Amino acid sequence: MPEFLIQSQRLAEQGYAVFQCSPKGKTPFGATAPHGCNSAATDIATIQKWWTQYPDCNIGIKCSNLLVFDLDCKDGIDGANDLRNIINAVGKLPDSPIARTGSGGWHLFFAKPNIDIIGQKKIKWQGQKTGIDIQTGNQYIVAPPSIHPCGNPYQWITPPCPVSQLPQLPAEWIEQVLPKRQSAIILPVVPTVNDSNIIARCRSYVAAMPAAIQGQSGQSDLLRAANVIFHGFGLSEAEGWQLMLEYNCRCCPPWDLSDPSDEKDFYRKIRQAIEKPLDSQPRGYLREQSPVQIPADISAICNIQTTNTVHPETLRGLERL
Fold this sequence. Notes:
By secondary structure, this protein is of the alpha+beta class. The chain is 30% helix and 13% strand. α5 packs parallel to α7. 38% of the residues are buried.
């Protein structure tokens, strides 16, 4: 039996939601993970099917039910030393599963706290950025025995335990170190979307929009999609998140939501669509529009040109380590 299949099954049996990443890569494998890390599963039959068909795919773990300290240790960055400095100031961490990444970094696994912690790249400590990323929620990490793009394998140093047995972080760490999500803004009053037809229409509308392409107004295209979902159809973040993920899967390249920087940028577009929509229509106005009235030129509803708007942030690479 292929090694990746064996290991992915073991992780799933312990409660880790796994999915396939590209062979020797860190991005979700489109054939089996069309919704990115949200395609993750714990169902053994599903996992057997995936790795039987594509045995060389790396293993991704969605961090929806756990929290990972991701320590970067290269190019002058020393996340391990940064962690030691925080330990000296805040107190020791409990023993936990530990993996060595293919790039020379470290993954430390803990139970997800019962407060709204956000993933963040290079968290700050005493006013200075560190080499420590927090991976949790709608983010993911690559797990052993996956192969890093540089060719080195990921390895368990301390083997994984069941998710239900992951150690809890000390209260001092939760209070002093972990980044918390800011309070959400109060949105204009729009009736809750109970009609699945509205969400289906929104999905069809977004499916007709052009995918965001790196170097070709990709940032603007992502914002336009968010504007349709959260302003035009007035969906809540919970209702619209899945549609944003589906749109992201069509983008070239997709926003890498395992990277806190990309996740922050992705989420920023959602907040911008909610707080500062691109058009002056009332929130939810597309709910009343007949499906046959969807304009061929989607950008017409956004009061934004599609040419000469290349944003420098679109010039980003796929590799993060």
